[in-house]
Amino acid sequence: MQWKALALALLVERGAGQAMPMLRFQCSQLVVDRLDPLVNPGVVPSPHLHQIVGGNSFNASMDPKTHDLPSSSTCTSCTFSEDFSNYWTAVLYFRARNGTYKRVPQFVSEGLRADGGITVYYIPSPTEKEKVTAFKPGFRMLVGDATARAPSAARKVCHRCMPATGDNSNINCGAPDSQFLPKHDVPRRHPVDHMSHVAYPNSSYNDVMVGAYGTCPKSHPVKIPQVMYEVMWNTQMFNDKALWPEDGSQPFVWSTDDKSGYSQHGDYVFGWKDDSLQRAMDARCNGAVCGELEIQSSESAMKCTKSRTVQEDIDGWLTEIPGMDMRK
Q1: Helix-then-strand count for the chain, H and E
Q2: Is 316 exposed, middle or buried (0-12, 13-18, 19+ CB in 10 A)?
Q3: Domain range list for the chain
Q4: Helix (H, G, I), strand (E, B) or coil at 37
Q5: Could you report the per-residue pLDDT of 51-87, keeping only the tens digit for each?
């Protein structure tokens, strides 16, 4: 089994017995680096490590007034070659009994091909009658709180212990998902907070589970695509109990130096070319095939990488998680 971390940028819904149309595609690893143009714009290095996917124009600043992702990028690590957006999350580490840390490797979500990275979902309106308005250039948002160490107001960020194959249960941060990291071993242009300009639909959790899409609150009347990230972490290499803390406590740590799991977060900068995302939402495309979009091969997507800006060891057995000295 493996761990599956879901970083949900907006509410995702699936009704009982119903599969809503949604783009589901892979974005291969672009770079793992200590940069964060949303929370720490221009800061090199940022306080903690992120894994980043998408367009290769990603950098520490990305000023929305001057940085146009489609024209600045020469490639994208995502399936759809018109998607130069950037998506990023925190990175997972294992803390061994002797106090050293090792980065947990990633693997691709079921049915897709890539070099780790993030599986991205875009969910349109459930019916053709409801209009979903695609994001505009300069749009950015994030969900979660990198400083959280206990349950907080952050919604739709969760973890799941995955079987080796065939997990078709909900993707809505309901049971068996949890905000905290599982406590057992696993066998095999906007407001500066980048949050208040978007909102969750007016739906209760029960409404969501029976498929109600929800209505927009009056404060946020424009219905936009719902976005979800799915990240797969392969923890099997750490199954040796001799590596675990002697008391058997949970040994996995986010790159925010957090063992609880509450600090996981997802960041997003919109970068689809022209009206490509709007066309896909209007067509209510499903899966990784969409007649409205240009598709590149997995091999081409995996070739789109960039060198790390912050040169430091991130993959060896480390005495500290990168950036830990900045947080002391």
Answers
A1: 4, 13
A2: exposed
A3: 1-328
A4: coil
A5: 999 999 999 999 999 999 999 999 999 999 999 999 9
